[in-house]
Amino acid sequence: MNERLGYICSTYLAKKADEDSRIWVIDGDLADSEGAENFAAKHPDKFINAGIAEQNMVSLAAGLATTGARPWVFSFAAFLCYRAYDQIRVSIMQTEMPVTLVGSHAGACNGKNGKTHVSLNDIALMTSLPKMSVWAPSDSEDVLKAVDSILFDNNSSYIRLPRDPAQLTLPTGNGLVRWLGSPSRTAIISYGFSTQLALATQKILEEQGVNIGILHFCKIWPLDIEEITKLLKNVECAFVIEDHYGLHGFISCLKHIGVETLLLSMAWPIDWCGQSGSTEDLLRNFKLLPTQIALEIIKKI
Questions:
Q1: Which domains does the chain possess?
Q2: Average pLDDT in the 110-118 region?
């Protein structure tokens, strides 16, 4: 796998648009970076380049939605969630418009783009909006599940996607929340890019004779407490790997709904604003490389 998930998303949307005329894609002049160009090539009549004007772009999408359209807005997560937050709050959330926001380059690993392009608290922002579904696909199959689920419903949604292509394919299976490997008393909870880290960690541990399960979330909000309680029934402790700050990140979502399992956060530090650097170097600096995560888990076991 070497294609960014944004490209997979737009390609699949183009296929769906062959039969669903409601689908539009609006882009913030980044189509060659986050993948919307795939849709534009196939459906130029349903594609709008709104330019570097994220607030207008979101307002335009909300207006289209009032006509019965299903607009998908593509940009970098840092630009989409922060610059256009008021428009998302007022024009989409408060009016309950079925607009889907696709934020690529989410999290901290953005290569040479630097701190202006990181989105380290987008989960906090988007999950705090009423009636906003939040998704964090980890591989291509996750993306397809998210697109199908969103089009089936009639809600506003946010999909966060990493900059780096997915390196590992998740084991096949159904469910937006599911175990990768067998449940274990000490486990990993992850989503999106962090599930890629979790899978690499799992492999390292298996080579050392340690079997550990990963509870993977493709959809991270809203959450079903009854389903999650059943999935965590025999888990005593779980490491929550975040591509986000630990404060108000996914671990906060789990605690908010009443998860009683001991949850240990492995996340980007709250006093860090992000910086340029390779994914490997950034992860190493904050002990989030799979080898480093594996050592922490072994200490706990």
A1: 5-160 (3.40.50.970), 177-300 (3.40.50.920)
A2: 93
